[in-house]
Amino acid sequence: MEIGIEREETSEEKKLLVFHLELKNFGIELNKIKEITDLLPTTRLPGALKFVKGLGNLRGEIIPIISLRERLNISGVERGNQLIIVIGKKINYGLLIDKIKGIYDVKTEISKSISSIFSKDVETSFLKGVSRVDGLDVLLIDCEKLIETDE
Fold first, then answer.
1. 98 lies in a domain?
2. DSSP 45
3. Of 29, 33, 46, 143, which sits most exposed with the smallest number of CB within 10 A?
C-alpha cells in the first residue's frame, strides 16, 4: 500500500498526518513526508542504536528504518507495519508506526506543555508541542531533531 502525499497548505492552517503509537496520537507536518508505504524488508546493522531497525530499499533508495516506539522509549510490542518516509536534511528515513488515523487541517498554534503528558523517563526534546486535532490531543514531532543523537 502506497499513498501519494499532496503538499498544499494555506498560511493559516497546516496539514498534519496523524497516527497512533500505543495509546497516543502523534502528528507530523505533511510537507515533511515523502510517502507512506508498508514495512520494507530490512537488513539489521551490527552496532546500530536500538531504535534503528535496519536499512530498507525503497525503489533503489537505501533508507534507515526507525522504530518510533523505541525512539520514544514507549513500552509495548511493535504492532505496526506501516512506514512514514520522512524527508530529512541529509537523508530520508522511515518511521515505523502502529496505525495511520488520517490527514487533518489544523491551526498553526501549538498548545500545552509536553512535560505534562509524559513521565520523566521519556525523552521529549524532539516533540514540538501538542495541538488539538478533531477533538484529540496530538503530539507534534520535530522531524529534524528526531534522528539527531548524542549517543
1. yes
2. P
3. 46
Of 4 and 41, the one with more pLDDT = 41
Which residues 6+ apart lie within 8 Å of 106 measured at CB?
A: 13, 14, 15, 16, 27, 131, 132, 133, 138
Q: Which residues share a beta bridge with 67? A: 96
pLDDT digits (tens, 9 = 90+) for 90-144: 889 999 998 999 999 887 555 555 655 555 555 667 788 888 888 888 888 888 8
The string over 112-124, giving b where at least 16 C-beta atoms fall within 10 Å of a residue's C-beta and e elsewhere, is eebeeebeeeeee
Any alpha helices (H) in 2-136, and if so which ranges?
68-71
How many folded domains does the chain comprise?
Answer: 1
Q: Which residues form the domain of 13?
A: 3-146
What distance in Å separates the CA atoms of residue 27 and residue 123, rounded to the nearest whole number? Answer: 17
What is the reported pLDDT for 108? 57
Q: Say if residue 46 is exposed, middle or buried (CB neighbours under 10 Å; 0-12, 13-18, 19+).
A: exposed
Domain of 43, CATH number, reads 2.40.50.180
Do the domain assignments include residue 151?
no
d(CA 80, CA 69): 10
Asked if residue 94 lies in contact with residue 85, where contact means CB atoms within 8 angstroms, the answer is yes
